[in-house]
Design goal:
The complex is a heterodimer of chains A (436) and B (579). Chain A is an alpha/beta fold and 436 residues long. Chain A has 15 helices and 16 strands. Chain B contains 23 helices and four strands. In chain B, α2 packs antiparallel against α3, α7 packs antiparallel against α9 and α14 runs parallel beside α23. Chains A and B meet through β6 and α2 of A and α6 and α7 of B. Chain B: InterPro entries: MetI-like (IPR000515), MetI-like_sf (IPR035906).
Chain lengths: 436, 579
């Protein structure tokens, strides 16, 4: 076991992060007043959905990003720039494709000026620990995803960091590989063979957080705030079927699908026209309705169970559920999803009736869709350029999000046959090619 | 496969020229004027004899070939140094980028051969009476044909380094020097090497034109293939011309086998891709080095030393503290303001210089003449690219869809693109004179003679990349004849075609300077066009006319690239790229 210093390794005090838009007029808030302390000997999980700023938070901890407000201190000293003693493992592995496994692991030591022989010895030891023996001379592209991430871990551990940061390290891997890697990593940690004092990991996988972490920090989205913090006292190795484990998972699900604050009229950030919409295929929406309508759920499903059976992460599942809620095809509460009468009707209808229902709901509940349709109806030419709506949306949100929102509404509008869109000229119209 | 894409500055930028392009153009033209003014002042050194004793004896050819090759590599090294500094500066500094990239765009559009005369006088002035000046002038001419696309490709790569790798470099505390050699340079390598090969091909054209050049009364002949050829043309020795052509072929083949193939095979590992590539580049030279012990020992020591150098930290003292202290918004604004004022002053001075120089010697009539002549040349370039496309696209598609045939033809087309077509121009003169043909029509063919191969190998590449499932689908649904061409294969090869045609058109503008005015002994044949105008002005040593001709031609090239090729390229990328 390593000597683990007492007290706080790292402290974030009232950290906020704003991101300046291209025009520079309106700043959007990514992180709002986040305070966090990382102590020796613990694994802390940052749990949240995409867009909650958890990856930004991790980069602030690493010193890769300087926060707009607030203070970060490492071992009592203020952080200004990349921190010595912090190593990061990436979701995309981020290996240098032109370096062999051994060179990739060594590089962090070599650039620090560690002599070649010592770097080699330590790299080989790390490779041995992480179970990469025999792959030393392979290049990353020859390896499977799991093996690549092992290289990522070895590269992190070889510098013997005080804190190991992990940015969704298992989410690019298939289910089985991810599970093996998690278990191997936990074994090393529990046996004290990890040359690191603390681990801070970002994840959007609730079960993963409960399986691995001593403490879970749940972040809310847009902007990212700390919504809840909970300790996990279950002993390792943890059993996913343990009732206590399940209870904790359910609790977090409920926490994360809590009804939005009453001042909003939708489940997505923004009001009315300024609502940021996700880009979700209508096939996915219809598929989800059918899945919930069919046995064993018969119109009402427990979200963790649904996530399990569909093999969807919460980042895929939640936006779909919430879009259905927005369109009043379903209600989401307390970690459950329940179809409305309209949703049940939709699941039984044929294609044309489905399109009709969908169009009606789109007009009634998605202000942007209604707005586009009204503009097209009012104009004598029945045509309108996309830039017009894009710039209207940009009054409320960033350029990228406005683009995504528009893409989402185009997909839905096309399916509901509310309007047509020409990609080449970027114009909306009421034309129906070959029809009417 | 390596991306078959020559880095063209015009493509990465907006369609309509903006104030930065104007600034860049003013600066470039002013630089010509400055050199021209300076060289008018230096009269004495120009008369110094710099003509080496050359003979048409075949036995001299290997030595000449060696000299020419060395010049090529000297220029290539200079281009690499330029690339690493210029492109890095442009990619790292926002302020530098605003000026450097439009400047690169203008420089890439300037017909390099046009300002050969300036650089020759400039370098001769630096080393009066010695052949060093002439050598440097030739090397500089080759450099100007090689450097721009390499620099731009490197700049583009630096701007697209994957974010996560960048974070690794920062998170693991690489110093800027280490980051450059461990991450940025390797990441840029495949595209840089491809552009180096293209540059090397382009360089042959200029080496032939730059070794033997007359500016006014001064004639410079450096020992090399280009001078040998010029001598053979003066002496009307067709056998010597053919011998020179043969040697050029051998040299091109040799450097392909001994240099580029090993490098390409070596650089394969720098490609950022998720799975092991299907194509494995082979090189027998590389295998030889890897397998033979003493050859391997020969390269390991230098490799180890380079490795050490790349791992040096070379930290700038206190740079971080400085940056933090100076990064306040107000300070940035003030710095910007100073920067803009400096640029404005430079541009104002440039414009004044150009105006003074040109108004002294030239009239509005000259301007009208050059614009009309450039229009002729533009029509020529355009029509010939269309002809070459109509002829080669169907043939290339036919070849590309037959993989075995394509494998044999593809390298041949690349070789032909590298072959300096200007060595064959004299033969055209013989024919034009013999049959008293109209030079305005018959010399035009020479403009695309060397550049049409870019269309051929790009389209072959496009047809080879045509996905098999789409092929099967079109057979299965019976798509044939007109529909197959219109809806299937032409859209599929379109992005590749645009890349090829763009490269070809760039080369053709340059070729026009050589192709519109051709000599065979005392027989001279000229067509009406800006190329002939510049070539004749060069021969007469008339600097103001050269400046005017080159400037007008550059403006046309920039507009041609921006208004024709860029929209087509964007269309291809947006709508027709099969991924």
């Amino acid at each position: 076991m390593l000597d683990r210093p007492e007290g706080a390794l790292l402290e974030l005090i009232n950290v906020s992060q704003t991101y300046t838009k291209g025009s520079g007029e309106r700043d959007s808030l990514v992180l709002d007043n986040v305070s966090l302390t990382l102590k020796s000997g613990e694994i802390v999980g940052l749990l949240g959905r995409s867009g909650c700023g958890k990856s930004t938070l991790l980069r602030i901890v690493a010193g890769l990003v300087t926060p707009s407000k607030g203070e970060v201190s490492y071992l009592g000293a203020r952080v200004r720039g990349p921190v010595q003693g912090v190593a990061m493992v990436f979701q995309s592995f981020a290996l240098f494709p032109w370096l062999s496994v051994l060179d990739n692991v060594e590089i962090g030591l070599r650039t620090k000026g560690v002599p070649a022989e010592e770097a080699r010895r330590r790299a080989l030891a790390a490779i041995d620990t992480i179970g990469l023996d025999g792959f030393e001379s392979a290049f990353p592209k020859e390896l499977s995803g799991g093996m690549r991430q092992r290289v990522g871990f070895a590269r992190g551990l070889v510098v013997e960091p005080n804190i190991l940061l992990m940015d969704e390290p298992f989410s690019a891997l298939d289910v089985l590989t991810a599970e093996t890697l998690r278990t191997d990593l936990l074994d090393l940690w529990v046996e004290g063979r990890m040359p690191t004092n603390s681990i801070l990991m970002v994840t959007h996988n609730i079960e993963e957080a409960v399986l691995m972490c001593d403490r879970i920090v749940v972040l809310s989205s847009n902007p990212g705030r700390i919504a809840a913090e909970m300790k996990v006292d279950l002993p390792h190795p943890r059993n996913r079927l343990d009732p206590e484990f399940r209870q904790l998972v359910d609790k977090i699900y409920a926490l994360m699908t809590k009804r939005p604050a009453p001042e909003r009229d939708g489940v997505f950030p923004g009001l009315g026209l300024g609502m940021a919409l996700p880009h979700i295929s209508t096939n996915t929406l219809a598929g989800m309705i059918e899945e919930v309508a069919a046995p064993p759920y018969n119109g009402k499903a427990d979200l963790p169970a649904l996530a399990d059976s569909l093999n969807m992460e919460i980042d895929d599942l939640f936006p779909v559920a919430e879009t259905l809620q927005l369109l009043r095809f379903a209600e989401v509460m307390e970690g459950d999803i329940k179809l409305t009468p309209a949703g049940l009707k939709f699941s039984d209808a044929d294609i044309d009736a489905r399109k009709k229902t969908f169009a009606d709901h789109l007009l009634a509940y998605v202000p942007l869709a209604a707005r586009i349709r009204r503009v097209l109806d009012e104009r004598p030419s029945h045509r309108a350029p996309a830039t017009r709506f894009q710039s209207e949306l940009e009054d409320y949100m960033s350029e990228d999000r406005a683009e995504d929102t528009l893409k989402g509404v185009i997909t839905w509008g096309r399916y509901g046959e509310l309007f047509a869109f020409d990609e080449g000229s970027q114009t909306f119209s009421l034309e129906n090619p070959g029809g009417e | 496969m390596t991306s078959r894409f020559v880095a063209f500055t015009s493509l990465g930028r907006r369609a309509l020229p903006n104030q930065w392009d104007f600034i860049a153009l003013a600066v470039v033209v002013a630089a010509f004027v400055a050199v021209a003014k300076g060289s008018v002042g230096m009269t004495a050194p120009l008369t110094a004899p710099v003509t080496a004793d050359l003979s048409l004896d075949y036995a001299n050819l290997p030595y000449y070939a060696l000299r020419t090759t060395l010049r090529m590599f000297a220029a290539l090294s200079a281009s690499l140094v330029f690339t690493f500094t210029y492109a890095t500066l442009a990619a790292k500094s926002r302020r530098a980028e605003m000026v450097l990239i439009p400047l690169l765009d203008v420089l890439q559009s300037v017909p390099v051969l046009g300002f050969l005369s300036f650089t020759v006088t400039f370098f001769l002035g630096l080393f009066p009476g010695s052949t060093m000046g002439a050598e440097l002038a030739a090397i500089f001419a080759i450099f100007t044909s090689q450097a721009w696309n390499m620099a731009f490709s490197f700049y583009q790569s630096l701007r697209t380094v994957p974010r996560d790798l960048e974070e690794v470099a920062e998170g693991y505390h690489f110093s800027p020097w280490q980051k450059f050699w461990q991450l940025e340079a390797p990441f840029a390598m495949p595209s840089l090497i491809w552009n180096m090969m293209m540059s090397m091909s382009g360089g042959w054209f200029f080496v032939v034109a730059s070794e033997a050049i007359s500016v006014g009364d001064t004639t410079i002949k450096l020992p090399g293939i280009g001078s040998y050829l010029a001598l053979a043309i003066d002496a009307k020795r067709i056998d010597a011309v053919l011998a020179a052509v043969g040697v050029v072929v051998l040299v091109i083949l040799a450097y392909d086998q001994f240099l580029f193939r090993p490098i390409v095979a070596f650089a394969a590992k720098f490609r950022v891709e998720l799975s092991a590539g299907q194509t494995q580049e082979e090189s027998w030279v590389r295998q030889l080095f890897l397998r033979t012990r003493f050859l391997r020992a020969l390269v390991t020591t230098p490799a180890r030393i380079l490795d050490r150098i790349a791992l040096l930290r070379l930290d700038m003292p206190h740079s971080e503290g400085l940056r933090l202290r100076w990064s306040g918004q107000a300070v940035t604004r003030i710095q910007d303001a100073i920067w803009f004022i400096a640029i404005a002053a430079m541009v104002g001075y440039s414009l004044y210089q150009v105006f003074e120089f040109v108004s002294e010697k030239l009239s509005l009539g000259d301007l009208r003449e050059t614009v009309i002549l450039t229009t002729y040349t533009m029509i020529r370039v355009f029509v010939l690219i269309v002809f070459a496309s109509l002829f080669w696209v169907p043939i290339s598609i036919f070849i590309g869809l037959r993989p075995r045939l394509a494998e044999k033809v593809q390298p041949m087309a690349q070789f032909l693109a590298a072959f300096p077509a200007n060595v064959l121009f004299p033969i055209a003169v013989v024919l034009v004179v013999k049959f008293s043909l109209n030079p305005d029509i018959w010399l035009s063919g020479l403009i695309v003679f060397g550049t049409q191969w870019y269309i051929v190998f790009n389209v072959i590449g496009g047809a080879m990349a045509f996905p098999n499932d789409l092929r099967e689908a079109s057979v299965n649904y019976g798509i044939k004849g007109k529909y197959w061409w219109k809806d299937v294969i032409l859209p599929a090869v379109f992005p590749y075609y645009v890349t090829g045609a763009l490269t070809a058109s760039g080369g053709s503008w340059n070729a026009a300077i050589v192709a519109e005015y051709v000599k065979w002994g005392d027989d001279k044949v000229a067509a009406h066009g800006i190329g002939a105008y510049i070539a004749q002005a060069t021969e007469a040593g008339d600097y103001p006319k050269i400046v005017l001709g080159v400037a007008v031609m550059s403006i046309f090239v920039i507009l041609f690239n921006r208004l024709l090729w860029r929209p087509l390229f964007a269309l291809g990328e947006r709508r027709l790229r099969i991924n």
